[in-house]
Design goal:
The chain is built from 8 helices and 11 strands. Strand 9, helix 6 and strand 10 form a beta-alpha-beta unit. Helix 1 crosses helix 4. Helices cover 31% and strands 25% of the residues. The strands form 3 sheets. Strands 8-7-9-10-11 form a 5-stranded parallel β-sheet, with helices on both faces. The model has no long low-confidence stretch (mean pLDDT 88). By secondary structure, it is of the alpha/beta class. It folds into 2 domains: 119 residues, Heat Shock Protein 90; 114 residues, Rossmann fold. It binds adenosine-5'-triphosphate (ATP) and magnesium ion.
């Protein structure tokens, strides 16, 4: 990282999730290993065309680049990579939303994103974010986690198939002092629960691949741990089956999940009798 990187102003959670998305793409592009690079740089841009009739103001930008030495992308993939739902990954492995979210975040922050890729050599995806020119830096845009008290090593099992959400939730909970074990499917979650001693909380997505839903996982887990605390993450489409869960002492979190809302919910549920 360039220590003299200019300040920029954007949502730090979204920036983190963008970098994580790019890092996971880089990992996927290097199945046999390779080199992942993260770099920042200050750049001065002339007026830049970012859409058919869209131009970005000339000026100072902070460039954040994630690079890999992986497969690279053919021209037709580069052209469509930022499109929502465009993916070359097998069904069930990619939703094709990663790069479109990265691009949306960059545009919404007053910047843009670029792809520089060569087949067999690798890929660099860069976010260009406008330099923040104010005198003093404003406070953080996101409320600090003031009331979130650190965990005391409580054991939490996280089951989520989305790599980005699972990694963010796991890291954030670990950072607060919880003992976190993560799985990507219901079956993996069952194995984890069987292998672990006492578990304080199960945090699971409702919609999981592989035939077992988060609700079924919770029921299976409660068969042997009737007191287990459960938080299920629901998407809009699953709202209908969520009815009645509260009666079963199952807490719900609605997607998209904001990390600080998640941390607060975990804390509340662990505190509850
Ligand atoms: N670093 C990279 N190297 C090679 N190809 C890439 C790279 N990043 C993205 N791609 C290509 O662009 C496509 C779209 O990427 P995007 O992140 O939007 O979706 P995805 O990774 O397929 O799925 P998701 O991110 O939703 O899990 C990928 O399927 C892949 O073909
Ligand atoms: Mg991706």
């Amino acid at each position: 990282m360039d220590p003299d990187t200019w300040p920029t102003r954007c949502d730090p959670n979204q920036l983190e999730s963008a970098i994580l998305n790019l890092t996971i793409n880089a990992r996927d592009a290097m199945p046999a290993g390779g080199r992942l690079t993260l770099a920042t740089a200050n750049v001065q841009l002339p007026s830049t065309q970012v859409g058919p009739d869209e131009f970005l103001a000339p000026g100072d930008y902070v460039k954040v680049t994630v690079g890999d030495t992986g497969t690279g992308m053919p021209q037709d993939v580069i052209e469509r990579a930022f499109d929502p739902f465009f993916t070359t990954k097998p069904i069930g492995q990619g939703t094709g939303l990663g790069l479109s979210m990265v691009y949306g975040f960059a545009r919404q922050s007053g910047g843009f994103a670029t792809i520089d890729s060569r087949i067999g050599e690798g890929t660099r995806v860069s976010l260009l974010l406008p330099r923040f020119e104010g005198e003093d830096l404003p406070g953080p845009l996101v409320q600090p986690l003031a009331e979130v008290v650190a965990g005391r090593g409580e054991t939490i099992v996280v089951v989520e198939d989305d790599d980005v959400v699972r990694t963010l939730a796991t890291e954030a909970l670990r950072g607060l002092g919880y003992d976190v074990h993560a799985a990507a499917t219901g079956a993996e979650g069952v194995r984890l629960l069987n292998a672990l001693g006492p578990v304080d909380l199960l945090l699971s997505d409702i919609g999981l691949p592989g035939g077992m839903s988060g609700k079924q996982l919770a029921d299976a887990a409660r068969a042997s741990r009737p007191q287990l605390k459960v938080i299920l993450i629901t998407g809009y489409a699953q709202e209908a089956i969520a009815g009645g869960l509260l009666a079963q002492r199952i807490e719900l979190l609605r997607k998209p999940v904001l990390i600080d809302v998640l941390l607060r919910k975990v804390q509340d549920v662990l505190k509850s009798a």
